[in-house]
Amino acid sequence: MPSFRIPLAGALAILLWAAVPASALTVIEPGNRHTEQPPIPGASKNRTKALKTTFDRKYKKVLGLLQRDKRLIAQIKKSADDFGIDPIHMIGAIVGEHTYNVDAYDRAQTYYVKAVAYLKGRIDFEYDGEDVEDFIKRPEFSRCEGIADSRAVWSCRESVWESKFRGKKVDGKSFPNNRFSAVFFQPFYAGQTFGLGQLNPLTALMMSDRVHAVTGMPELSATNGKDVYEAIMDPGKTLPYMAATLATAIEDYRKIAGFDISANPGLTATLYNTGDSLGRAQELAKRNRRAGKTVYPEENYYGWMINDREDELRALLTGG
After folding, report:
1. What's 7-22 look like in SS3?
2. By three-state DSSP, how is residue 4 classified?
3. Cβ atoms 216, 239 nearer than 8 A
4. What count of other Cβ atoms lies within 10 Å of the Cβ of residue 289?
């Protein structure tokens, strides 16, 4: 997926000193900017074809799961309320992931059963025999030392990976031209995410401090891969990490790019799908400064579908 990286110091400066004042915010109303759905990537089409199904069948399957499971809807509402967001953003992320990236199970409890099956034995985050905790002790990561916030420190480490290691040979060892999360944090098979929210472990690690502060759930550590995977695979635990991720994306666009996207679930679904809301907000802010006019955030194929079907998805939250 595309990714925009910025130096950590610059990101913190934007967050702490240059937040866009509320009076300057541009509010994005519900609905799509594109009249037609943007193209769906070939990888998503191939996954769906391999499962001998269609996007519409997958959509109906996850919709049915949410319609049947009132307890899950109640948990979604609770997590959304805890993090101060409209629960439609969480519904959009779940529906989008299970329409375009995976196929939903029939019951939420099945996600827990699947998690137990995966969580037997030890789970290590490593590449080619080098544990990530040893990897981040390399001198290239020295600028990340002393950063306390989990999102800031892992963002710093991800930035170092991009600039110093990705696709390069360092100290005689070659590193893949791939994302930090795919190389070190997906021990089952690269590119795979898990659970109801389809979060990857690095995202969970980034959100650890925020989830702990809001819910009191234990903080996560890369030294304990099993705890991290349990947090993203157990439906009873993953919802706060989803809510934190979505709330953070909304805040990034408000503080950095000057857009209030809190009423547009297609945009938050897009950011949930693509990741790196901080880098994308920064890139949008730069584009607006260069253009001298307002360049609006746009939904991708995934977010377009969520906006297009918002009324049907909102009915899940009202019992309709």
Report:
1. CHHHHHHHHHHCCCCH
2. coil
3. no
4. 9
Q: Where in the chain are the domains?
A: 8-318
Q: How many CB atoms lie within 10 A of CB 114?
A: 15
What pTM did the predictor assign? Answer: 0.88
CB 84 within 8 A of CB 247: yes
Determine the average pLDDT of the residues in 68-84: 95
Burial zone of 25 (CB within 10 Å; 0-12 exposed, 13-18 middle, 19+ buried): middle
Handedness of CA 294, 270, 240, 311 (dihedral sign): positive
Segments of 19-156 assigned E as strands: 26-27, 126-127, 130-131
Which tens digits make up the pLDDT trace of 242-252?
999 999 999 99
Identify the CA nearest to 103 among candidates 74, 76, 71, 64: 64
Residue 203's nearest CA partner among 167, 235, 228 is 228
Angle between helices 301-308 and 88-100 (to 10 degrees): 120
